[in-house]
Design brief:
Structural class: alpha+beta
Oligomer: single chain
Number of helices: 28
Mean pLDDT: 96
Strand content: 15-25%
Low-confidence stretches: none
Distance between the termini: 69 Å
């Protein structure tokens, strides 16, 4: 039989044959704490599945990934585990109309964040467990039919070590040493969940009285490791939670359907969060151990609201197969920002969306692996890789555009009908389009073909013709372009804004027109006769999904006056457009860096500022001409230090500049300042160097040889926690030594002893932009090992290694040729593996083109 992968065709065949009435899952996790005699490996899992077969006598299979199976019975008939279980599937022959399958297995604890993850806290030795399943890892914990359209109710019971608490999707209680949980509503396998351990747990409650007088009470809980309890601001988590529940009840007209609402912040988590109904799991980095900017709190609120939106989009109504993953992720991504703006203190969340989330989408949509929002997902490996910027951020952008296209109320009324019509069921694209067509009165098929079923991103550029006599606009047109690989020209609902400087020097909008753009060129007739603009901003207010371009006058205005642009969203859109031009080799990297150095210090939005820091660093390390990198790095460090000293003492802007300065510091005086700030011999007024900032300073010091292993050991003694250990591991791998790099490579590639979090930390430390010569020998080694790594390791670790160790800093034509050679010689490699290499190859080719653009600018400047 096939291995761990599951194809769409197999899932459809099984769904046509079977329907599931319910699961009883019994887990014995008492082995988690160990007996002191060796490594803890397995736990007992006993599953009873009641299901029907509409073709009695037919054969099918159940899914289970486990080291061993003790017993299998089907309809009271004992089956030989050695004959029916192949390590990933249990063969089921001669099915009856009504069936009962019982599987008794030994399942494995995970160290990769997939299945039942087991974490030992180095601070106090406590053990913590949690599950993570998406898209198909519930089968690592209990036998099941692992596909989203075979929904069923679940009853879980768990035996756990004494003193532990256990949580699952339903409410639970401890009786006679067993935790028993209320039966769930019909849900998919991938959103069932168990969290167990000595977690710090805080409770609250939410109450809502509806117009008809009915009252809804939702018990709230939030938890984290005991070691993080002093930093846990549960009150703010509950505040956002209650605001979100109010917002979604106001807009969805469907009461929260899953009883309680727990939120668990768990260690070594691979994702941002996961929408398990009644028990949402988050990465514990959303608990802040040191001072962070408001952008971090906004991001956490966005994730809380994103996962809450999933209770309706994804959990209540679930896509039939992963082709329509967007039916949950695009909506949740959109609703995260929509609710943040509408319900919380983060009223500028659409600015963050325009500047940060859409940048993720633009990159993904220009890769060779780009795909329509409704994707062609052939199997589970395809599904795993499609949790990407297209499915999330492009999909959310398109939904924002849809709101402008059909009207917000028609859009929300469509959602309300969708929930009521398909509650606890599974849907496809057509089901959503049907209700939107009803509520909007529009034929949604053409819109769907253009926006959901084609790939690629359009560019919109203004063309301005001025009347020579009056100096006013004679004609303003918007030119739409599409890449040759994806030539679809889409209908766009956009706003075109005209900007001029006031007498006080502010760059402000004086005219705005909302219009539909279709085809290669659209004339905006309403703007004829308007005063001549200094800046034309197509897609003002960020209504559509496109790359913005500028006419020559507008670009000159931004080079001189970007900092005077008063509207923060317009400014964010301009920054995003300039960054896209840099990535597309239309703007030299040194010019983008100059813009950052000139205007970033005046940026009021902290999220945009931090994005600018990341882009400037990327421009230097990937897109600047190699011969200019040293000079460019010095300019960035000088500018960062200047802004750090000028920032308001104690402000979040000061903190952001401090972190950026640390990342770009490389000259001896700058490293000396970081050292002095660490040991207290120097200070910057208002800058508190807390533990997280200490580690941020230590990584560049270590990478440049200004701090050694003994310094790191002393810092770990100061911060002997799980977080401190991850920081130390990253810094250790960053040391500028050939022996260190060899050891780090071996730990990640040749061994599977590191957990997922420590693999990530080691890769991050290994791959330093300043250490290109040290890591050069690993380019050839990379191509020699990736197919073996992909075959032997879990898909999560395989993705981490293939993405993280690609020799991106060996940005030479020879590396591009080596990548092409590997692709040519491995046409039969796993499609998901080839996709990852193709994406890395595209990033490398883009970097080389940008470097040529930057080098040409340098030659021109020298000649001038």
């Amino acid at each position: 039989m096939p291995g761990e992968n599951l194809s769409r065709d197999e899932a459809r065949e099984r769904a046509a044959l079977l329907s599931v009435d319910g699961y009883d899952v019994s887990l014995d996790l008492r082995s988690a704490v160990g007996d002191g005699n060796g490594e803890v490996r397995t736990f007992r899992s006993v599953t009873t599945i009641r299901f029907r077969c509409n073709e009695p006598g037919a054969a099918s299979f159940a899914d289970l990934i486990a080291p061993s199976v003790t017993a299998v019975s089907l309809n009271g008939r004992d089956l030989d585990p050695g004959e029916v279980f192949d390590g990933a599937r249990i063969a089921l022959e001669d099915l009856a109309a009504e069936n009962e399958l019982v599987v008794d297995a030994q399942c494995a604890y995970s160290r990769t964040g997939e299945g039942m993850h087991r974490f030992v806290d180095p601070e106090d030795g406590e053990v913590y467990l949690y599950t993570q399943y998406e898209p198909a890892d519930a089968r690592r914990v209990f036998a099941n039919f692992e596909q989203p359209d075979l929904k069923a109710p679940y009853r879980f019971e768990v035996q756990a070590p004494e003193g532990w608490t256990v949580w699952s999707n339903g409410a639970g209680e401890l009786a006679d040493g067993v935790w028993k949980f209320a039966e769930t509503k019909p849900i998919s396998t991938y959103i069932t969940c168990v969290v167990a351990g000595p977690y710090h747990y805080v409770t609250d409650s939410y109450t809502r009285t509806f117009e008809d007088g009915t009252k809804l009470e939702i018990p709230l809980g939030a938890m984290c490791r005991k070691g993080l309890a002093p930093h846990f601001d549960a009150d703010d988590v509950f505040l956002i939670t209650k605001q979100g529940l109010d917002f979604f009840h106001d807009h969805f007209d469907y009461p929260y359907p899953f009883g309680k609402y727990d939120q668990a912040f768990v260690p070594e988590y691979n994702l941002g969060a996961m929408e398990n109904p009644g028990l949402v799991t988050f990465r514990e980095e959303y608990i802040f151990r040191g001072k962070v900017t408001q952008a971090s709190y906004e991001a956490r609120a966005n994730v809380i609201l994103h996962e809450m939106a999933h209770m309706w989009f994804g959990d209540l109504v679930t896509m039939e197969w992963w082709d329509d993953l967007w039916l949950k992720e695009s909506f949740a991504d959109f609703m995260g920002s929509f609710a943040n703006v509408g319900a919380t203190r983060f009223t500028g969340a659409w600015i963050t969306f325009a500047n940060r989330r859409k940048a993720w989408a633009y990159r993904a949509d220009q890769l060779p692996s780009t795909h329509p929002i409704t994707a062609d997902i052939r199997d589970l490996q395809d599904a795993k890789l499609n949790f990407d910027g297209i499915t999330y951020a492009k999909g959310a952008s398109v939904l924002k555009q849809l709101g402008a296209y059909v009207g917000q109320e028609a859009f929300l009324e469509g959602a309300r009908r969708y929930f009521k019509r398909h509650a606890y069921g599974n849907t496809r694209l057509g089901d959503l389009l049907s209700v939107l067509g009803e509520t909007s009165g529009r034929d949604m098929s053409a819109w769907a073909r253009s926006w959901l079923q084609t790939a690629g991103v359009n560019s919109l550029t203004p063309q301005v013709l001025l009347d020579t006599d009056s100096g006013r606009i004679e004609e303003l047109a918007v030119v739409q372009e599409a890449p040759e690989s994806h030539p679809e020209e889409r209908p766009h609902r956009i706003a075109v804004g005209l900007y001029r400087r006031t007498d006080e020097g502010a760059l402000e909008r004086y005219a705005r027109v909302e219009t539909d753009v279709e085809g290669p060129r659209t004339v905006v007739a309403e703007l004829a006769g308007a005063e001549a603009p200094e800046l034309v901003l197509v897609n003002d207010d960020d209504l559509t999904y496109c790359k913005i371009r500028f006419d020559a006058t507008s670009l000159d205005t931004l080079r001189a006056h970007l900092g005077e642009l008063t509207d923060p969203l317009a400014r964010a859109l301009c920054w995003s457009a300039l960054w896209n031009m840099t990535r597309d080799a239309l703007l030299p990297a040194r010019d983008f860096i100059a813009l950052v150095l000139t205007f970033a210090g005046r940026e009021s939005d902290i999220g945009v500022l931090q994005m600018l820091h990341a882009w400037a660093e990327s421009a230097l390390t990937h897109y600047a001409a190699p011969e200019w990198r040293t000079a460019g790095g010095e300019l960035l460090a000088e500018g960062a230090l200047r802004e750090l000293r000028a920032a308001e003492p104690g402000s979040e802007h000061q903190l952001a500049w401090a972190r950026f300065f640390a990342r770009v510091a490389c000259a001896e005086p700058d490293l000396k300042l970081l050292t002095d700030l660490l040991d207290g011999t120097s200070a910057i007024d208002g800058l508190a160097v807390d533990q997280e900032l200490r580690w941020a300073f230590l990584e560049p010091l270590t990478a440049h040889g200004a701090a050694d292993e003994s310094v790191l050991a002393a810092e770990l003694a100061r911060d002997d926690t799980a977080s401190g250990k991850r920081h130390q591991v990253r810094c250790l791998a960053a040391r500028p030594s050939a022996a260190v790099k060899a050891q780090a490579w071996a730990q990640v590639v040749e061994s599977d002893t590191l957990s997922n979090a420590l693999v990530e930390a080691t890769i991050s430390g290994f791959d330093q932009a300043s250490q290109r010569e040290l890591t050069a020998p690993y380019a050839e080694k990379y191509f020699a090992v990736i197919e073996r790594v992909w075959a032997e390791r879990s898909i999560q670790i395989g993705m981490d290694v293939v993405r993280g160790l690609f020799p991106a800093y060996q940005d030479r034509p020879e590396t591009l040729a080596a990548t092409d050679a590997w692709l040519a010689e491995h046409e039969d490699a796993a499609p998901a593996l080839r996709r990852l290499v193709l994406e890395a190859r595209d990033d490398l080719a883009r970097a080389l083109r940008a470097q040529e653009c930057d080098a040409a600018a340098g030659v021109t400047a020298d000649a001038g």
